[in-house]
Amino acid sequence: MNQTAPNPQQGTASGFQLEFADASFFAQLSGALYWQEHKTLLVADLHLEKMSSFAKSRQFLPPYDTGATIKRLAQDIANTGAERVISLGDSFHRDEGTTTLSVQDADALSALTSKTEWIWIAGNHDPSEHELGGTCCESVALDGLTLSHEPNAEILHQVAGHLHPAAHVRINGRSIRRACFVSDKNRLIMPAYGVSTGSLNILNPAFEPVINRREMSIAVLGKDQIYPVAKRHLIGR
Questions:
Q1: pLDDT digits over 200-229, tens only?
Q2: Residue 69 CA to chain centroid, in angstroms?
Q3: pTM of whole model > 0.85?
Q4: Domain presence at residue 3
Q5: Residue 103: which domain range?
Q6: For 203, left (φ over 0), alpha (ψ -120 to 50), or beta?
Q7: CB 20 within 8 A of CB 159
Q8: Could you tell me if residue 146 is inside a domain?
Q9: Which secondary-structure segment (H or E) carries 55?
Q10: Is 10 a member of any domain?
Q11: Looking at the 3D structure of the chain, how many domains does it have?
Q12: Which residues pair with 41 in a beta bridge?
């Protein structure tokens, strides 16, 4: 097993290439990873039905996030030719979100789960099984990698979500804050995929137990492409 730190390389027509633990992925601007060897699209933290769950607490926001996220998924599947989708937890903002989908969104999601092998990994927001098509499970082991929701320092060669990583970067007197992929030799943490999700600075203490900052590699989601970023450019706020 290759123990070297992940090394983001220049992007190709299929996406930005990320190497991790002997696996090669193509990162997409959406925040997905395409694992070409297995024809598998990885996504994390869709948080479907987030806006509808807010409405229950009388926070009335336009409930279009679910449809927009499903549309993004359909586009990534079409662009990559993925035959399998693995969603790494918090696919729904709450367990009851599986029952509040509009007819239009439910049909659109069903169209995707019926034409691909679909695996739903449990998250902290949506730990229960459902009947929306596909398979529900706690984690997936594939080619020496563990695919699961919450980063865990005791798991070697893990791909996870949960923390919604973002990098605040200052270069040449200008600063931006963008969602990102962050990794070290043992862990690759994916950005949140859902269109209405927040993010957490990768220099936040929450990342310290699961990402070794000395070995940290960062790939930031830009407007038109994904950029590798050196640690010296990071801002911790």
A1: 999 999 999 999 999 999 999 999 999 999
A2: 12
A3: yes
A4: no
A5: 16-233
A6: alpha
A7: yes
A8: yes
A9: helix 50-55
A10: no
A11: 1
A12: 34, 85
DSSP H or E run through 72: helix 65-80
CATH of the domain at 134: 3.60.21
Q: What's the pLDDT tens digit per position in 21-40? A: 999 999 999 999 999 999 99
Within a domain: 4: no
Query: In terms of Cα–Cα distance, which of 144, 136, 103, 141 is closest to 119?
Result: 136
32/94 Cα distance (integer angstroms): 21
Residue 201 forms beta bridges with which residues? 166
Amino acid at 64: Y
Which residues does residue 234 pair with via DSSP β-bridges, in sequence order? 169
Mean pLDDT computed over every residue of the chain: 88
Q: Strand (E) positions, the chain?
A: 16-20, 23-27, 33-35, 40-43, 84-87, 117-121, 135-137, 140-142, 145-147, 158-160, 165-171, 174-183, 187-189, 200-201, 217-221, 226-229
Query: CA Rg, the chain, in Å?
Result: 17
pLDDT grade, residue 129 (50/70/90)?
A: confident
CB atoms within 10 A of CB 137: 14
> Are 202 and 211 spatial neighbours (Cβ–Cβ below 8 Å)?
yes
